[in-house]
Specification:
The complex is a heterotrimer of chains A (about 250), B (about 350) and C (about 190).
Chain A: H1 30-43, E1 50-54, H2 62-65, E2 69-72, H3 78-88, E3 93-99, H4 100-106, H5 108-116, E4 122-127, H6 157-160, H7 166-171, E5 176-183, H8 187-205, E6 210-216, H9 220-223, H10 227-241, E7 245-249
Parallel strand pairs in A: 1-2, 1-3, 3-4, 4-6, 5-6
Antiparallel strand pairs in A: 5-7
Helix pairs in contact in A: 1-8, 4-5
Chain B: E1 4-8, H1 9-19, E2 24-27, H2 35-47, E3 50-53, H3 57-69, E4 74-78, H4 80-96, E5 100-106, H5 122-126, E6 137-139, H6 144-161, E7 164-170, H7 171-175, E8 177-181, E9 206-207, H8 216-230, E10 237-240, E11 247-250, H9 253-268, E12 273-278, E13 280-282, H10 286-295, E14 298-303, H11 309-317, E15 323-327, H12 336-349
Parallel strand pairs in B: 2-3, 2-4, 4-5, 5-7, 6-7, 11-12, 11-14, 14-15
Antiparallel strand pairs in B: 1-8, 6-13, 10-12
Helix pairs in contact in B: 1-2, 1-6, 3-4, 9-12, 10-11
Chain C: E1 2-10, H1 15-28, E2 32-37, E3 47-55, E4 69-72, H2 75-81, E5 90-94, E6 109-113, H3 115-121, H4 128-140, H5 145-155, H6 164-186
Parallel strand pairs in C: 1-4, 4-5, 5-6
Antiparallel strand pairs in C: 1-3, 2-3
The chains are: A alpha/beta (about 250), B alpha/beta (about 350), C alpha/beta (about 190).
């Protein structure tokens, strides 16, 4: 598919975002997160040197929105694809954008080993505790008791274990240089998310190592909530189990 | 004068790749192809290239996908069970039209099987192998020299057609040590406007295999189908003592070379037996087989499996003459005498004189 | 010209090196040659073997079940490969470790080469494999001793190049042994 003809820039839409409407559901946080990432691409002047690895899930359509070079990855493999991109073009800015079904289930091996090798890439991980695109099935990050289409009686710890805390897990690896969990459910958190992204971008542009930002995100459609209810759930139930904060910042001083 | 070196088949592949400008290799250990990653791990750092031992075959094919998306010449290698794991990525390469070279020094299966030479991966290689309606070009070398030469060719074909190219060998082809004449690769690098190099002076571009808009995927598949059709001109095969052959043997790879000795044995006995050895098994040398079927009295396919390529031979022969088959499951390598005896059974069965 | 051989023995006796040197020499002499080592599971259990085929024409099968010759450096190898050699073929036996009656063969010619004793005579028992290679080349006639000697610098790792003169001495000792045996038979 060829890029749409470039339209005149209005207001402050980031240059690296295309001027097209999102397909995302009302109240979904993907749109906000896309924008935050695009803002940093612009702020760091990286639009011409960015290579992105799209993943499988709702955000597979990343390439309809970002005006940068993008390759599609098989389900779960974005961190391996990004490894190839970065090794072949070490001067590029390489990021992946993956959901929890993609990164925390089928792509566990790829993310763990990319982090452990200290690949100089940036991983944007969007955790909405559910498989979104396939219609709301249980994810590794689905909260205990949460009803999904494949946990109709609520996630049972005895059957499915408890949700994986990816940020904490990756922080234990020597190769991970920066890891943070953020949310965009209110202005305060959004500002922190922005700061974390900026830090992650700094890590890669300075060649300091593997950087990882986990976004807690809402999925009103599959949570069967209104956008307001879903937004509130992110800050309460989700942030309770997945605490926000910077987990690793090896160059903090 | 060209330099001749005595090297293993696997090393010949690594050296051919490097000569063709491959500077990125991603792999994962598995017998009997380990000399390839071992060679690459020694050579790449000295050449300023990348050798990376991935966490799995799955990861390594996707690293190839990423690096190749930037226009680089990239190779991965494995053996049968590992190729099964790579098939997902190969399907994406085909769908996204990203070139790459995949070496399969196949072993025996199904399952873990063993490390014996086997040609049981013929279907896996020539039928696409992964999901979806696609094809990979498949080259089947039979000597260390061919390993070297065809690996260089594989990179050219991959870029020419923006398609994955597979090299299909087996334990014998990988482990054998033979003189190889080293050559200088002289092709000029091709323009790759599709490559992801950053959206400099242009909009961002995309390499993908997902097509959701109405009719888009249909068009994409038709375009791919036309491309696969156009690959047919890349057909390569060898004939050996095929002149006036009444019985034409058809075999590829290791069996193809062993049969040369069998043909010599039979010709010494005055039997007009020849050999047709497909070098590309996809595209399959259909016309050559069809012609042989018309000129010979019978065709006989021999494989280190219980019957795979024989299907392609029968399709190509279009019943112009009978097609017999001798197959052997993994466990031992047939000797030229044994295969000559099998050929003689067909010779008698078909009443040849 | 066509020659093939299976070279077999204990791991550590240098049988793969013998095969390599022979193949290397054949390549330098402008012959077609194929060397096939056993590998993987077959490698376990302490025995090693390789097959070398040398010809003026392209080599078809690299695997030979009825070889023209076999070089057996220990008793298990003699028992395994001795019976496989063609009637008109030759078996080169390491007489330092194998005794008469310990294996069977149809081969018309059996050369008993006291490899370790001959190697000791020239001052290094570890060159027994090169003594045997000299005997094989002299007895098989597929190459000259000089062609093999000339190939050593290419076939051996540079670390061992200072050993080349000693290796050449061992090749010649093995070759001389075969010539003397032949002469003795004639006389």
């Amino acid at each position: 598919m060829s890029a749409k003809p470039k339209l005149k820039q209005v207001f402050d839409r980031p240059k690296s975002l295309k001027d097209v409407p999102y397909h995302y559901c009302p109240g979904c946080h993907h749109g906000l997160i896309h924008r935050l990432v695009a803002e940093q691409i612009d702020a760091f002047g990286l639009q011409e040197s960015t290579l992105a690895a799209a993943s499988v899930g709702c955000s597979v359509l990343l390439y309809d929105y970002f005006d940068v070079d993008i390759v599609e990855s098989p389900h779960g493999r974005a961190a391996a694809v990004a490894t190839g991109l970065k090794r072949a073009k070490p001067d590029s800015f390489v990021f992946t954008y993956q959901g929890d079904g993609d990164l925390a289930a089928i792509g566990t091996a790829e993310i763990v080993h990319a982090a452990n090798r200290g690949e100089k890439i940036t991983v944007i991980f969007v955790n909405n505790a559910v498989f979104g695109m396939t219609g709301g099935q249980m994810a590794p990050t689905t909260l205990e008791g949460q009803v999904t289409t494949t946990s109709p009686y609520g996630r049972s710890a005895a059957e499915a274990g408890l949700p994986i805390r990816v940020c904490e897990m990756l922080s234990t690896l020597e190769g991970t240089a920066f890891a943070a969990r953020v949310a965009v459910d209110n202005i305060k958190n959004l500002k922190k998310a922005k700061a974390a992204l900026k830090r992650a971008f700094t890590y890669q542009t300075k060649g300091w190592g593997f950087s990882f930002v986990e976004f807690l995100s809402s999925c009103p459609t599959n949570w069967k909530m209104t956008p307001e209810e879903a937004n509130a759930r992110v800050g309460k139930e989700m942030a309770d189990y997945f605490p926000l904060g910077v987990y690793k910042d090896v160059r903090a001083n | 004068m060209a330099r001749r070196v005595l090297i293993k088949g696997n090393e010949a592949i690594a050296m051919g790749a490097i000569e063709a400008g491959c500077r990125f290799y991603f792999g994962y250990p598995i017998t009997p192809q380990n000399e390839i990653p071992e060679y690459m791990s020694m050579a790449m750092p000295k050449l300023g290239g990348t050798f990376l031992q991935a966490e799995s075959e799955v990861a390594s094919i996707n690293m190839l996908l990423g690096a190749a998306a930037t226009g680089a010449r990239v190779m991965t290698s494995s053996s049968s069970p590992g190729i099964s794991l790579k098939q997902e990525g190969i399907s994406y390469l085909a769908g996204s039209q990203i070139p790459g070279v995949i070496v399969n020094m196949s072993r025996s299966g199904p399952g873990l099987g063993g490390i014996h030479p086997s040609q049981g991966d013929y279907f896996q290689s020539t039928r696409g192998g992964g999901h979806g309606d696609y094809r990979t070009l498949v080259l089947a070398p039979s000597t260390a020299q061919e390993n070297y030469d065809l690996t260089m060719l594989a990179f050219d074909l991959a870029e020419k057609y923006r398609n994955p190219v597979m090299i299909l060998g087996d334990a014998l082809i990988g482990q054998i040590k033979e003189p190889v004449e080293l050559k200088s690769y002289r092709k000029k690098p091709q323009d790759k406007p599709w490559a992801l190099t950053g959206a400099k002076g242009r909009h961002g571009q995309i390499l993908k295999s997902l097509f959701l808009a109405d009719g888009e995927l249909t068009d994409h598949n038709w375009m791919l189908a036309k491309k696969y059709k156009s690959m047919e001109k890349e057909v390569r095969f060898e004939t050996y003592r095929a002149e006036d052959a009444q019985l034409m043997l058809v075999a590829f790879g290791s069996v193809g070379r062993i049969l040369k000795t069998s043909v010599d044995i039979l010709r010494e006995k005055g039997k007009a037996v020849g050999l047709l050895r497909p070098i590309t098994v996809y595209p399959f040398p259909k016309q050559a087989v069809r012609q042989a079927a018309e000129e010979a009295k019978a065709l006989m396919v021999m494989e280190l499996n219980t019957g795979q390529m024989v299907e392609d031979v029968k399709l190509a022969a279009e019943c112009a003459c009978p097609v017999d088959f001798y197959g052997r499951p993994p466990g031992s390598i047939p000797t030229p005498d044994e295969l000559a005896k099998e050929a003689m059974k067909v010779w008698r069965k078909r009443g040849l004189k | 010209m066509y020659f093939d051989t299976i070279i077999a023995g204990f791991g550590g006796q240098g049988v793969l090196l013998m095969g390599n040197v022979l193949a290397y020499a054949a390549m330098h002499a402008g012959k077609q040659v194929t060397y096939m080592p056993v590998y993987g599971v077959e490698m376990r259990g302490g025995t090693a073997n390789c097959t070398v085929v040398i010809s003026d024409r392209p080599v078809g099968s690299p695997i030979i079940h009825e070889p023209v010759s076999a070089v057996v450096m220990n008793r298990p190898s003699a028992e395994k490969f001795g019976p496989m050699v063609k009637k008109k073929g030759q078996v080169f036996v390491n007489a330092s470790l194998i005794k008469e009656g310990q294996f069977t063969t149809r081969a018309k010619t059996v050369c008993w080469v006291p490899t370790m004793e001959l190697a000791s005579d020239i001052g290094n028992r570890r060159l027994a494999n090169m003594v045997m290679l000299g005997a094989v080349v002299q007895g098989g006639g597929m190459l000259t001793i000089q062609q093999v000697a000339d190939a050593l610098s290419g076939a051996l790792d540079p670390r061992y190049h200072k050993m080349i003169p000693a290796n050449v001495g061992a090749l010649k000792a093995g070759a001389r042994f075969i010539s003397e045996q032949k002469a003795a038979k004639k006389g």
